[in-house]
Amino acid sequence: MPTTREWKNWTGNQSCIADVYTPTSLTELQTAVTNAATGSRRIRPAGTGYSWTPLIPLPSGNSIIETSGLNRLLGIRSTGSGPTERHFVKVEAGMKMSELIAITHGNGLTLRSPTLFPWPSIAGAISTGSHGVGKSGGCFSDSITELQIVDATGAVRTVSEGDAEMPAAKVALGSLGMIYSIELEVSKEFNVYVDKRNIAVDRTLAEFDDLIASYEYVEMFWMPGADTFYFLLMDPSEAHADEWSFQRKAEEWLNTQVQSRAANVWVPWIAKNAPSLTPVLTKLAGGTVTEVEKEIIPASDAFHFQDAYSKNWDIAYSIPATHASQAWSEAIDLVAAYAAVGKYPINYALHGRFVGPGDGYIAPNYDRHSLYIEATTAIGTPGFQAFFDELESRWAAIPGARPHWGKHFSRYGDLPTMYPKMNDFKAVRQAWDPNRHFLNPWLENDVFALP
Asked: Are 150 and 112 in contact (CB under 8 A)?
């Protein structure tokens, strides 16, 4: 039976009163859906609540189905051998990314393009088109080979690799039904050579094409006011992984504690009480987190180096890789313009990762190599929303720009032109859920603009 209570997301900026179901099996999930989908009532799936957008909230009297109790491993399998060898892992929808990372790593495997942040649910990560890094791979959902989805009648629909509906199902914002299970293609664990370095901003902006072509995995950070980017430049390596000494492990642990303390306590306090100190703090923070070194480590560690993640406001866009220099220039110039008048709406880093093209109809990386670029700032930072609005207007004006579904964005009227396959997606959505049980007002009115 459901419990009527308040649901909130991670940052607390989205909430509603709903009948909340917490199924722990496929049968319970089917029952919850059929009970909730009566008359014109609506249902939304909820994972760990790490999206900033209004994906979940519903008017009172409707239902939310939380997936935290659906967190089991359903199977690991391999096919073929040699050049045709493939590996797959199947899990329930509510498993967290950190749990899946542990499973794959423990079985000599690694995920493809997983989220850097380890706590979103797997269904949440794929439904919003979330991503990792790698120009030969797409976003996380591009590794899906099978989905089991419970529709409004309680029936289980299976969508498999190659099915005509897969491009719509793999990134669907929870609008087709309740995902029960996901099968993903994974890779054998491999090592990566990691080159951590600082490169001048001007040089980077002028030589982006060469930089992207030179490495398989390109991840970059910019601290407001800095004259360099901090890069993680990575390639697969056949060499053995470096062994970390006890001293190195202790240093990494201490750095994590300091970073967590700074992000959770010092930055928010300064943002509210002494914003003029923000440039000093970001400079100090840059020196703490941007060690310059070269190492060989397992891919699982390289892709999941962030264990601490503070509550923040985040805006992110997917930009065609060919326009990466413009996207970064727009952001850096705007930060400088605000600083010139004593305003510091960004006190964490601007962050970018490059990924390959995908085929999800409403995936932000659909059909092109992409730079995912984001700006983050501490909760409580004055004036961040005005900055986000102006930054979004600049990014959205770049040809081919598309918002990240889970991060702040507001230019809903641009979505039909940003996503060229939006109508194809809406046709599948209509066929699967003609009574709109799995839509909330935001999806119905703003995202899909349904009559």
From this structure: no
Q: Is 73-189 CATH 3.30.465.10? A: yes
CATH number among 3.40.462.10, 1.10.3720.10, 3.30.1360.30, 3.20.20.140, domain 191-412: 3.40.462.10
For residue 21, CA distances in Å to 15, 78, 175, 369 come to 16, 35, 17, 39
- Where, residue-wise, is CATH 3.40.462.10 in the chain? 191-412
pLDDT by residue for the chain (451 residues), tens digit each? 899 999 999 999 999 999 999 999 999 999 999 999 999 999 999 999 999 999 999 999 999 999 999 999 999 999 999 889 999 999 999 999 999 999 999 999 999 999 988 899 999 999 999 999 999 989 999 999 999 999 999 999 999 999 999 999 999 999 999 999 999 999 999 999 999 999 999 999 999 999 899 999 999 999 998 999 999 999 999 999 887 655 555 555 555 555 555 556 666 767 677 677 677 667 666 555 556 789 999 988 888 766 667 789 999 999 999 999 999 999 999 999 999 999 999 988 899 999 999 999 999 999 999 999 999 999 989 999 999 999 999 999 999 999 999 999 999 999 989 999 999 999 999 999 999 999 999 999 999 999 9
Structure pTM?
0.93
Tokens of 423: 């109508």
- Strand 228-237 relative to strand 350-355: parallel, antiparallel, unpaired? unpaired
Give CATH 3.30.465.10 domain extents, the chain: 73-189
CATH code 3.30.43.10 region(s) in the chain? 3-66
Q: Which CATH architecture has domain 3-66?
A: 2-Layer Sandwich (3.30)
Torsional sign, CA 253, 216, 113, 283: positive
